[in-house]
């Protein structure tokens, strides 16, 4: 039986999730959920054409640097046992299906994703009738690719899935990644049989998804994602395969760019809020681009206007791709040097572009040499793509999402001296079951100990570090988008990490008394209703227990837990408790409870619930005091010797000031945040050019 070519699964993993100071307690502010929220309105802006394809960036992806364990990395067919997807028939093998169709002289019709309304929507019927047509019924000469592929092949249609399209546009920048997702063993040649296939990473496996080429149309035009070339169909078929993966086209309405980037790479995404970004953010972005990381960004949505346009030509609540990051040489009468620029793209692919400094035909470009313009591929077209200074980017955008292909690509050490490190990875699949293993967060002490528990032993410190070990924990919910048709949304999830100074003296799994009298040493920045929550920690050598949980008890769902470390670690599943408390006695005080309220995105495009975002106290994971907070806990806070988060100060870095003195809060509080970025030159009125560059290089 044919099986897709084996690609080292570890090659597509990455990790550099949030460092504490990079993400506020209420991590989800809604900026990351993109899409028009309705998805079925005809948007004339989406049908404007873009210029011919431009030269593509074909960056070389780094060789694999991750050693993985616990779950076998493999490819799987849609519907195959272990793929996570059920089929009405046999597992769908692309080559086998194609050969059968060629032998019988028929065109393939997918029994798993029918050409009917159930594949289009699950809640609201479109206002018009869509006709399913094959490419040769739409144009005379259909092609999978026309003069190659590029980001300009990604034009948004009527569906509110700009979050997905921003990731697809990024995908076209890297050849090896692109053909991992879009195999090149298919097309409209003599082996055409109406069947195509695409590959997506899903919770530890690469799933090969087969689709037929019947696409929804209206008046002879594609309704959803399409190319600027009428006879090019790779992007439309890719969107259909992704819709099949999640059950329908409507299931793709509203989402976070990082979700799609992870499904294209198997990576762990980091997020930066511009108002709390680190001072070396451009170095991080530049290094990420050099390492072939996928990047997207967005602006805080206007709660009153859907996809409102700013005076500078940017769209609120909309996802953009970052397609290039560059230091550009400039020369003015007063200043000579380099300026950090970014190239962004709006998936609409039309004239809706930034109109400030460094926009198309702006006077700033006169100070760039023709050679430099040519080297960066500068063009001025109404194609949705534009340049802007990093300074203006910080001012006008709210959130940055980076999906790295290498786990160490953005560490401070690497930015300083370029060292590479091997990373170990452990992957576990788990489940929260009502009344069995769905214990809720630490607020619910009586049931918290029922949650799944994972024990990890850190025995070797990081290279160049005499005291601590790096641990990256990423908790991902499974299959929530694919069951949105049942009214299910993302759970509010997080995790806590507990130190076990005497691992042989505590039960496996840990019981209620342990959690009653022991404090967590680290935890996720917040409980949040996104698909994945992740964080990077620095911990002393020792044995720890990771407890993933939902915020409220008795909420059911499956999850994937990924744990990265620089050196070899021993990790095992400890199980979960369903029996009575064993009665162990512990002398250390109770841990601080989890925040009393989860973090929800405010109303954002894509139909996600509107819940308040609570003000922060300045310390990750703790909201300001609100009525009824903290919940009742027998030893918190008066009896606890640990620092009270509501009564600062304590040292900027507890481990530096007094190693071991603050075991509950390693690395808290973070260093003082950088000052808010200064407003750039991209407001409606432009300063004189000389003044602009003088201010820029002060």
Produce a short descriptive summary.
By secondary structure, the protein is of the alpha+beta class. It is 16% helix and 21% strand.
Give an overview in words.
The chain is α+β, with helices and mostly antiparallel strands. Among the domains are: 35-47 and 71-254, no CATH class; 421-616 and 621-639, Jelly Rolls, CATH 2.60.120. The protein has helices spanning 94-104, 117-120, 135-138, 162-171, 175-181, 234-246, 257-265, 281-290, 370-375, 390-396, 412-417, 445-448, 512-517, 654-657, 689-696; strands spanning 66-69, 75-77, 131-133, 195-202, 205-212, 215-218, 221-222, 269-273, 294-298, 319-331, 336-345, 385-389, 399-403, 423-432, 453-458, 468-477, 493-500, 520-523, 532-540, 542-550, 557-565, 569-575. The strands form five sheets. The protein has a six-stranded antiparallel β-sheet. Strands 1-14-21-16-19 form a five-stranded mixed β-sheet, with no helix packed on it. The protein has a five-stranded antiparallel β-sheet with strand order 18-17-20-15-22, with no helix packed on it. A hairpin with a 2-residue loop joins strand 6 (215-218) and strand 7. Helix 4 (162-171) runs parallel beside helix 7 (257-265). The longest helix has 13 residues, at 234-246. 52% of the residues are buried.
